[in-house]
Amino acid sequence: MQNLPENKKIILFDGVCNLCNSSVQFIIKHDKKDIFRFVALQSELGIEICKYIGVDQNKIDSIILYNPGVAYYYKSTAAIEIAEELGGIYSLISVLKIFPEKIRNYIYDYIAKNRYKWYGKKESCMIPTPELKAKFL
User: Fold this and answer.
1) Contact between 105 and 99 (Cβ < 8 Å)
2) Cα–Cα distance measured from residue 81 to residue 16, given in angstroms and rounded to the nearest whole number
3) Which of 68, 47, 44, 65 has the alpha carbon at shortest distance from 57?
4) Angle between helices 75-86 and 101-119 (to 10 degrees)
5) pLDDT digits (tens, 9 = 90+) for 23-35
6) pLDDT tens track for 79-88
7) InterPro entries of this UniProt entry (predicted)?
8) Cβ atoms of residues 36 and 29 within 8 Å
């Protein structure tokens, strides 16, 4: 894989989805330990990472959390893992792990399927401000 930052977890997200972009902004604001870097699924690097980890990008309708050299997570499990890393009150979301992944992902898929209808869609991926540029790969 091309120059991925060491000791950083990579969040791959739908760069044109308003809900996804709001989630990225939320994570950046609460990532006090500077754990995450972000890549739009539609970008060259996003496509390359998906191929590398064996995820068919055309069939993925989800956020992906990629911990280089360790593992990757998607859908509800990725969201829970991200919340745990943010710590504090957000780590309480891990209580959702008591529900089977299949049930969590059913709810996740319902939201994902309706995200453009409910939250809208951008014409292109967001361009990070100069202050946030270092967070994006």
Assistant:
1) no
2) 23
3) 47
4) 90
5) 999 999 999 999 9
6) 999 999 999 9
7) DCC1-like, DCC_oxidoreductase
8) no
pTM for this predicted structure: 0.88
* Phi, psi (deg, nearest 5) at residue 123: -75, -25
| List of residues 6+ apart from 118 with CB closer than 8 A | 19
Q: The tokens of 32 are what?
A: 């006090």
Length, in residues, of the chain: 137
- Residue whose tokens read 């809900």: 19
Maximum CA pair distance of the chain? 41
Q: Are 63 and 15 in contact (CB under 8 A)?
A: no
Nearest to 126 by CA among 19, 15, 36: 15
Instruction: Return the CA Rg of the chain.
Output: 14
Pairing between strand 36-40 and 71-74?
unpaired
Please name the residue that has the structure tokens 């790969």.
Answer: 137
> 59 φ, ψ to 5°?
-105, -5
